[in-house]
Structure formats: C-alpha cells, structure tokens
Structure prediction request, 229 residues.
Amino acid sequence: MISSLTSRGKGKRYRYYVSRALIAGKPAEAGTLPRVSAPVIENVVESELRNRLPMNARADFENAGHAAMGRYARRVTVARDQVTVELAPEALNGTQRPRGKVRAPCIIEIPIRLKTRGGETLIVVPNDRGDGQDPAANRPLIKALGQAWKWRRALERQKFASVSELARHTGCTEPYVAVMLRLAYLAPDIIEAFLNGTQPVDLTLARIHKTKIPLDWPGQRLALGFGAH
Prediction:
C-alpha cells in the first residue's frame, strides 16, 4: 500500500507515492520500490488505460484527466519490473472488457523498466510484442498516431463534414478528437522518433493530451521536449 505525499523544493511542489511501511519507519517492509514520482506512475497507468479501454472510456480521460483514472482503477501496485492495475468492475459496466493482457478479475499487468535521468527515476513501458519495433517504442503513442492519421484521411476525403461529425460517429467528445488529430500534423522526425523509440522517455500519450501542440514544426519539437533542430 502507498500514500501520496507532497514536498517543496526551489519554489516547486513535488508529489510522490511512498510506501506506508516506509512512512511507519519499517524500511524492510517497504518493498522493492519504496518511493516513486506521482506524475510518473500516473502517466504510465493513464496511458495504458487510454490504450486498452473502449473509446468511450478513453474520452473520459480527455474530460477529467487523472480524476478519471480513479473511476477505472481500484488499486495500483508498483514493483521494479511491473505495474499491476486492478480495475473497478462497476466502472466497466456497459463497456467491453479491456484489450491486451488482462487476467481475472479485471487485472492489467504492465511490464516496465526503470531509467534514471537527472537524479529522477522514470518508468518506461517497453514494447514486448515481438513485432520488430524498438523495445523503447511507446505502443499507446504509436497506436494514437495511427488513429490520428486515419481520422485525418477521413476528413480530407470528406467522409465527415467536420470534426464535430467525426466525433459523433466515433462516440468521442469533440475536444478529444481535436487533440488526437494534432498527432497527424507532427513533424516527420517526431513521428520517426515515436516509431523507433527515440522520443523523450517521459513523453507519454497522457502528457501529449495535456500539451498544446503548435502547427509549426520547430514549436512542436520544443513543446514535446525534442529541442530545437
């Protein structure tokens, strides 16, 4: 079990999930990962839920952000090589069961590896599908990129008169579709980085949904952490 703590440093606030055993002064019982950055673990879980849950559930995250995660995830357990998410059955009523590796009763297992950068521990979700992609490739990002291009082509071929009509057809909110469509206008080198796994390790689908991505390519690189070219 873990608790959320907030600390301050150099004028900034930092949130962590800390083992309750560690808080109680029992480090031997704190497990293999006694403290982890709250945004890091939240982004991993949110990205995976966006990828695995049905489209209507994914739209919830666009409207409510991390608050939606509490409706779908009953419990999250973090180890050095895996994050285990126990889904709330009541939140899945009327929806499909999530895709991917899921075991009863609605448990999602997310393999991870830890990476340290600038003194901060980051969690990377490797690609274990054996499809030839780089192990660092982010599956939710790649899937979202494919969906964005599919929607862009549908609009260009006038299958839908507007983003609003496309949103109604997919069952998603218009803001969610608009955010997803941004991915179809990314610079070629950013798209290539997504596909070969060389994007910044903390660039997740959850972060992209919170970032205002400009249309100009230099601005995109700066906004997404690639730096100027």
Summary: Strands lie at 2-9, 12-19, 35-37, 73-78, 82-87, 102-103, 107-111, 113-117, 120-124. Residues 139-223 form one domain. The two ends are 44 Å apart (CA to CA).
